[in-house]
Amino acid sequence: MMSAWQVLARLKSVALMGAATALLTGCGGGGGSTTPPVTTPQAATPALSVSTGAYTTLQSVAITDSTSGATIYYTTNGSVPTTSSAAYTAPIPVATTTTIEALAVANGYTNSSVTSATYTINLPAAPAITPITDIHQGFIYQIVTDRFFDGDPTNDNPSESPGLYDSNGFANPANADWNLYWGGDLAGIQQKLSYLQSMGVAGIWISPPMSNIRVNAGTSNGETGYHGYWTRDFTQIDEHFGDDSNSWTAFDNLVTAAHADGIRVYVDFPANDTNPLDAGEYGSLYNNGTLITTYTTDTGTTPYYHHNPNITNYEDRYQVQYYTLESLADLDQTNPWVDSYLKTAVTNLMAHGVDGFRFDAVMETNWGWEYSLENTIANWSGPSSLSRMPGQPFIFGEWDEGSGDTLYPDSVKFSNNSGMNLLDYTLYWQLTDVFGKDGSFYDIDNELTLEDKGSTTIPAQGFAQPNDLVTFFDNHDNPRIMSQGADRMAVKQAISFLLTCRGVPVVYYGDEQYLYNDTNNGGVPYNRNGMTSFGSTDATLLIQYLAALRAANPAVAYGTMMQRWINNDVYIYERQLGANVVLVAINKNPSTDQAISGLFTDLAPGSYSDYLAQTMGGLGITVTGTVGGNNPVTNFTLPHRSVSIWVSSGSVPPSIGSVTPRVANSGAAVTISGTGFGATPGTVNFTVGTTTLAAAVTNWSNGQITVTVPALAAGAATVTVIQGTATSNAAPFTVNTATLIPVNFSVSNTPTLASTDVIMLTGNVAELGSGATTWNSAIGPVTIPIAGSALQTVSVPAGATVQFYFFVLHSDGSITAESAAHSYNVPPTGVGATAVSW
Ligand code: NOJ
Ligand code: CA
Fold first, then answer.
1. Mean local confidence (pLDDT), 120-133
2. pTM (2 d.p.)
3. Distance CA 419, CA 424 (A)
4. Quick one: which ligand is closest to 241's CA?
5. Catalytic amino acids?
6. What is the DSSP code string of 693-723?
């Protein structure tokens, strides 16, 4: 038996020999004999699958350890790994210069020595981004102005609204109040345009720049309009974003500078509401600095606001349009003053050169009124001195629902018929599921099929122009996917998908810098982070690659989208426009490479290298044989956590990708974007029914034509481009009867409804459905303010005499109609109303 002293001495000597720890065991035995000490073995040093060195492609580093049952801990930040470091589970993607250090720990073993390797990554520069003429060929970058960059400290704490600013914001966000202003402004965006331009940003969507309430609407915490959605005056620029006199100088400077850099400007416009009705300025509404009303003093016979409770049922057509959204004073867009005021504010922004709008809360705004808003924009022709970017204004609205929601079919109908493009919120939910929470790619694939092709089980049509949907995976209203579980590689895979999917993509500011903050699970306001870095990252490089691809290959901007191979973790899909083919393969599995067999493509036979030059761990493929657009790809293995893109391009006959606007009057200017139109003018035809008329051409290039809509009867139309003997696809279009103004059609004494019945409206002009009585062609389902009545705003031709009637549409498609039609003389301007009894 060793004495305590001997044990201690032996321990000391073991320690001196350099072992990390040692234990003595097996001290038994008798007869005075000495049992040799047993030294605990040391776990084997982990092995890294990639050696230290310089690389030009993304590396995937696996770590193994020969000690059975060992857990490997590792770091990538230069610190020595401990058992508190990240435990290794799957190969680590290395996209930037990184040192990996690893340690193995196993039961019955002392900890291993630390191994380390440094990977110097020099990814190849992205291809140059060629100039574009249309937003579909690029992507939009969404900015919360207050959180982007402080380009003008003089407006941080303006004299008109002092005390709403927290100087900790950008510098020390942990100590900042995230509901106060942080100092970002329009000048700041202007100063960072070259950062945006270098990434290939084609347009910026800026948070509402108009004047917000000037006081704190909070009690204990700050509550300010830093986000821009608490407007008090739609005609002035907020003092925090511009200057103390609420002038347009900073705004105009930004628009001019952005256009000079080839960047379009889309302004967020909240037409639904003003500001909190129960705090702050209590729904104050100003016109060019003059107070018009507040929510509490809005007691006239034609109120500016609806005075209803907060929306509780977002599937009720009446509630969403006429109730209050989150205590924000809810404008009545059919009040004639409000109608004119909002439309004047919108055209004023166009006169300041904006290239389009993101309309806030279009589901909660009066849907029928929004048709006349679109018509106002489509009819507007600004001063010829205006330096807008090429093309008519592109507009998109926020309809925040999923495709399983009751009002999803209404959203498709609304977008198709009004010409208001929508943010693709229904796809958004699937993108966050797949890239944020490692959901199945089938969720995305099924959603795309539903949205683009429509459904036979619900009255949802397909979207008329899926490439006009505005796609995104992060925004200012939801936690960034990094707060939902995505790591950097998942963010880059989401970016890769977004920028190659059909639709116009929006990248939320800061995603390319991996910004996120998990406070409140990353929800508002912690998703509105201050931009702290404007440097190059592997994500900015990826965006450059994808922007170059979008700009160069019209299949991405305008082509079809088709699934070619799928499982939960692998999605291979193809964009195609004639000989332009882009095949994208994503494997998001953390550790399993996927054998791919039975893959077919429209790519012609040949070898294709990865367009991303392996910067996302991809590989090349070989296509053999020609089987009519189903050409076999030689079997290959798709690496885990990789993205590969294979591309071909070629000339195509005239192909229309987008018509902007999609709904307009005869005489309105319309931009047709696509490819293959030819350098010299051909013909653009508009067809309604059996009548085809050629449009007057005002501008013609291979990718973009501007025409004037010919004098056609109103209704569903098609547009074709003819060049030589070739005729393009027929793109859908709608011709309006005349300038549209909103009219409230109401009816009392309606029949008792079965739970599956809806009330619809039809009439003798195209805008009232041309007498049709189907769900998709008539107006409705209309709103039901109280049982026994119905109310629907419809934008109808100004000055026309219209005949109309309401009817009950039963679930089997049969109808119960009013016994006779009513007649109504639509006023020549303003708004109208007609109330009838059933
Ligand atoms: C939707 C906007 O995106 C959100 O940020 C805002 O708070 C609400 N509309 C109300 O304006
Ligand atoms: Ca500032």
1. 95
2. 0.93
3. 15
4. 2
5. 360, 398
6. EEPEEEEE-SSEEEEE--S--SEEEEEEEEE
